[in-house]
């Protein structure tokens, strides 16, 4: 195939496909002076809530803040512990830590999601919550997670930052427990022009508290009830997200088409372990935020693809959270550590062409002979 350049994430192309409309939205918001907590945000919150089937949605400055607010609203506090999967962004642990609780990492499973058996082994009398990450646009085995929470009397709080619209047995990520968070970081399936996020929940009191926490701890009457910070989703971001959200289903459909192509062309390579193909299990609806594989000779493969101008990414800089010893973690999670020797993500976004995916697959085949 002709040499081509395939960036891991093509920010310019994603902007240029809607440049005219985005410029018009920016001009409109600025002319109206509609910057903070305006109608565009309310409309977007309502659209997200309706899409996922939640009663409430609160737009916040970023998903990390959202997770901290959600954890705090559930009553997680100093002296408590919450178990999370070490194959995640440090943000998951941060959301727990800043409530005063102790984040406790557990193993990743063969499905790249939380290993529920490992999570159970990490429980102590101080454990109050399980915080699974719905990673790469796929839900965990939520039957197993819910069973653990119900047997042990634990809260379920979801880091669903990468999983807007991902489903397990027909239910959207973020709505299995007390609530969940979604990220609108620019490289997410629905990206803003900067940081952004939201909290979704069916619990009215959690909704009230999170709405208060994002605005200096002030209630609807602008009376400060608690000390808090400022983390509001900018109205400008909300207006752009509202426009982009109208095309979201088609973007997810395209990601699933691309995942099917990757699966078809790479499934026969014995040195690779691929994520499940779309619709391979009717319990799951995956949105393919990322296409993460496990590859033998991973570092050599990455270097080879770089020479062919193909971008890849190893999540979290190649370091699971529990290996961040400067933060005080001391756990040994051997399966997760082995996993991080092989994991790598291939390009995955809705502006990829069939030709680009075929080029990536051909070069991977070339590498493995």
Question: Can you tell me about this structure?
Answer:
- This protein is an alpha/beta fold and 369 residues long.
- It folds into two domains: 14-105 and 113-245, Aspartate Aminotransferase, domain 2 (3-Layer(aba) Sandwich); 248-368, Aspartate Aminotransferase, domain 1, CATH 3.90.1150.
- The chain is 38% helix and 14% strand.
- It contains 13 helices and 13 strands.
- The strands form three sheets. The protein has a seven-stranded mixed beta sheet, with helices on both faces. Strands 7-6-11 form a three-stranded antiparallel beta sheet, with no helix packed on it. The protein has a three-stranded antiparallel beta sheet with strand order 10-12-13.
Radius of gyration: 21 Å
Helix content: 25-40%
CATH architect. name of the largest domain: 3-Layer(aba) Sandwich
CATH H level, superfamily name of the largest domain: Type I PLP-dependent aspartate aminotransferase-like (Major domain)
Overall mean pLDDT score?
97
Any idea what the shape is? Answer: globular
Main beta-sheet strand count, sense and barrel state: 7 strands, mixed
Secondary structure category:
alpha/beta
Please give the number of β-strands: 13
The H/E string reads: HHHEHEHEHEHEEEEEHHHEEEHHEH
Number of helices: 13
The domain count comes to 2
CATH C-level class of the largest domain:
Alpha Beta
Poorly predicted parts: none
Strand content: 5-15%
CATH fold-type name of the largest domain: Aspartate Aminotransferase, domain 2
How far apart the termini lie comes to 16 Å
The strand line-up of the biggest sheet is 1-9-8-5-4-2-3
């Amino acid at each position: 195939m002709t040499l081509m350049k395939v960036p891991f994430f093509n920010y310019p192309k994603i902007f240029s496909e809607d440049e005219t409309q985005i410029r018009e939205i920016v001009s409109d918001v600025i002319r109206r002076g509609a910057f903070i907590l305006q109608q565009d945000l309310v409309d977007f919150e309502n659209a997200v809530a309706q899409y996922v089937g939640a009663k409430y949605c609160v737009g916040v400055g970023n998903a990390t803040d959202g997770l901290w607010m959600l954890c705090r609203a559930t009553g997680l506090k100093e002296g408590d512990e919450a178990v999370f999967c070490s194959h995640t962004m440090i943000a998951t642990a941060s959301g727990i830590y800043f409530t005063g609780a102790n984040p406790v990492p557990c193993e990743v499973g063969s499905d790249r999601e939380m290993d529920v058996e490992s999570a159970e082994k990490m429980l102590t009398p101080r454990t109050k919550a399980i915080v699974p990450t719905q990673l790469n646009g796929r839900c965990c085995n939520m039957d197993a997670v819910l069973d653990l929470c119900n047997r042990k009397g634990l809260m379920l709080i979801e880091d669903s930052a990468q999983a807007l619209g991902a489903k397990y047995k027909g239910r959207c990520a973020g709505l299995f427990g007390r609530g969940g968070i979604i990220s609108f970081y620019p490289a997410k399936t629905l990206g803003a022009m900067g940081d952004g996020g939201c909290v979704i929940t069916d619990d009215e009191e959690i909704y009230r508290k999170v709405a208060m926490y994002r605005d200096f701890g002030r209630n609807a009457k602008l009376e400060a009830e608690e000390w808090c910070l400022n983390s509001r989703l900018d109205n400008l971001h909300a207006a752009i997200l509202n426009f982009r959200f109208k095309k979201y289903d088609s973007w997810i459909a395209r990601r699933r088409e691309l995942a099917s192509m990757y699966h078809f062309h790479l499934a026969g390579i014995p040195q690779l372990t691929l994520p499940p193909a779309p619709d391979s299990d009717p319990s799951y609806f995956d949105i393919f935020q990322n296409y993460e594989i496990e590859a033998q000779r991973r570092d050599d493969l990455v270097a080879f693809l770089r020479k062919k101008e193909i971008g890849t990414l190893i999540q979290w800089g190649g370091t699971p959270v529990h290996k961040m010893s400067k933060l005080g973690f001391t756990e040994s999670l051997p399966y997760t550590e082995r996993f991080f020797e092989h994991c790598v993500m291939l390009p995955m976004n809705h502006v990829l062409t069939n030709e680009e995916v075929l080029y990536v697959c051909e070069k991977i085949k070339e590498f493995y002979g």
